[in-house]
Amino acid sequence: MEKILLFIVSTLMALPLWAQKTIVSGTVGDAVTGKAIGGASITAGKWSVVTNDDGFFTLKTDEAVATVTASHVGYQPQQAKVGPQGSAPLNIKLKPATILLDEVLVTADNARMLVNKAISHIPANYGSKPELYRCFYRETAMKRQHYICVAEGVVDMYKTDYQQGVERDRVAISKGRRLLSPKRSDTLSVKVLGGPVTPIALDVVKNRDFLLNKDELDLYDLKMDVPTTIGGRRQYVVSVAPVRNAPYALYFGRLYIDQETLAFTRAELTLDMSDRQKATQMMLVKKPAGVRFKPKELSLLADYRVGTDGVTRISYLRTTFRFNCDWRRRLFATSFEACCEMAVTSRNTDDAQPIPGRNSFDQRDAFYDKVDYFRDPTFWQDYNIIEPTVSLDKAVHKLLKKTSP
């Protein structure tokens, strides 16, 4: 069977630490239920990471820090004191935030009016000059309940100011590694849209062609939803749902808008799967003859965070694909799931230089083909990353054993 890999994208920001001084680790959970909180933002000054699905994080800095702050949508932010090196891991508990309806200033009975107003505030709320981000990128693929592919790396992402489009934004690979199950039966037989350039396209605030333009918004029904908080700041929540037919699949989801600044702070979108052909066109690049592709889910998450300078920037991206592959002459279809993440941990705002075209990653390139195999156990020693979950960590060890000579 022809080997065609599955790629999904998201890019995670990571940062080299040549003069490392502090390493802070711990877990973040719900103060009421005790359940781990994945995707929580952990910040300390200019440094940040996010927790994995088990709620675990490790933050590395090149300077001493006294506290870290944990935050997540719907929770009150919580500061935790950092002990001396070698101290026990932090155990941070976030309390659910409460929104008193009589405190919510509802000025937008018309959700479309609110979204249009937030769009008009983009030049004031987002970056007005080019910036260079350092990113950690990871893509994983699962066959049924087993990991069969892991690829990850450090990438640099150049972004022009938010009054321009994404045409000049670029991504370059700095360091990476890959691991694929050697079992022939595990070989992925479908290639899905994705790659380290996906975070450029999924920056819905900057890439207006994606959603935030008049023609696209006209295809949706926008309604005010229950308000919430992010990082202690109150948010309007606008639900979006397809209301008109389009030649391509549309999305269901929510947009979060800061009540004070009217900045878009979060977008949660799920592709409409009611028309399988349209959904397939959005997800599938090509497939071998004899394989039937059945899309199940495509979900996107984009998070933005306000910096100490008052500028709102992209901070976290996650993309999840779920689909079935049905081979002729086989009785049952096989389920696949792939996921990628990106968390901003470092940026350069001073004289950020564009990434030359010859060094940039092309959306037609496969990340897997550009990086080396897993081998070095200290590969990420000098970088901030999203820690692997327990299941992913075990899967990596198993795959390494299988691929060992």
Overall description:
With 405 residues, this protein is mainly beta. It is 11% helix and 40% strand. It has helices spanning 111-120, 122-125, 198-202, 214-217, 276-283, 390-403; strands spanning 22-30, 41-44, 47-50, 56-61, 67-71, 78-81, 90-94, 131-143, 146-159, 170-180, 191-192, 220-224, 228-230, 233-242, 251-258, 264-271, 284-286, 291-306, 312-327, 334-343, 346-348, 372-373. The strands form four sheets. Strands 8, 9, 10, 12, 13, 14, 15, 16, 18, 19, 20, 21 and 22 form a 13-stranded mixed β-sheet that branches. The chain has a four-stranded antiparallel β-sheet with strand order 3-2-5-6, with no helix packed on it. A hairpin with a 6-residue loop joins strand 5 (67-71) and strand 6. The longest helix has 14 residues, at 390-403. It is globular, with a radius of gyration of 21 Å.
**Main sheet overview:** 13 strands, mixed
**Secondary-structure element order, as H and E?**
EEEEEEEHHEEEEHHEEEEEHEEEEEEH
3D shape: globular
Query: Helices and strands: which structural class?
Result: mainly beta
Helical percent range?
10-25%
Number of helices: 6
- Radius of gyration of CA atoms, rounded to a whole number: 21 Å
Number of strands: 22
Average of the residue pLDDT scores: 84
Separation of the first and last Cα atoms:
23 Å
Tell me what portion of residues adopts beta-strand conformation: 35-45%
